[in-house]
Amino acid sequence: MKARITILMSVYNCESTLEEALDSLYNQTYKNFKLVLCDDASSDRTYEIAKKYAKKYDNIILIKNEKNLSLPASLNKCLQYVDTEYVARMDGDDISLPKRFEKEINFLDNNLEYALVSCPMIYFDETGNWGKGNAIEKPTKNDFKIGTPFCHAPSMIRTSVMREVEGYTVNRYLIRGQDYYLWYKIYKKGYVGYNLQQTLYKMRDGKDAMKRRTFKTRYYGFLVKNQILKDLGIKYYFVYSFSDLLKGFIPNSLMKIIRRHRMMQ
């Protein structure tokens, strides 16, 4: 039976978490998928672990970058191997809960007016689950002023739409905001997405997560958000984008406390 879902997975230096992430895919109740797994020039044993799984499962296409290309470019390489109706995402340090694919593909099969589906996530670290996110059920363009309207890692998208928007945009300003920009391109084309109100995905958000949120990435995020909100016709767009830049002046230790308090409520 031809696969209906292709999972795009770019991994970098995640030898300690990759097996758990891959096992969560093969524990799905929905089995009709293939996985395009790209090692983004890891310096640890990530590629060896990926190769072991590629030998075990014949639905894995394993590719390796000779140099680190970053997430958007690596995902675009994975997209070249897609010949299925749907594209799904997965990260090498997270966990897809068993019914994730079943719930998402059933939704898209039965709701043709939506281009993509995602869901809120459970957040966990080395001590266990510590928080749970929320997601607007039917985001509109106006919801882009709050932030990204969909979680990237648990998303599933119609391949035809991904082709139409030409995949991920690659530039130096999208170190962390490649998903926000993708949703913008999809909505700019007139499509909409939906958030299931079930948590079907667990995101690893431990002690190193805040280190990736540097002032540089906050500044780039401000520039991208400012452009997106302006282009979408959001009133007072600068106010919403500038508030994100202000977060760059708050110490990460304090931001972590604020974020965890919000997620735990």
From TrEMBL:
GO terms for molecular function: glycosyltransferase activity. Residues 6-152 form the Glycosyltransferase 2-like domain. Keywords: Glycosyltransferase, Transferase. PANTHER family: GLYCOSYLTRANSFERASE (PTHR43685), GLYCOSYLTRANSFERASE EPSE-RELATED (PTHR43685:SF5). Belongs to the glycosyltransferase 2 family. This is Glycosyltransferase EpsE. It comes from Epilithonimonas arachidiradicis.
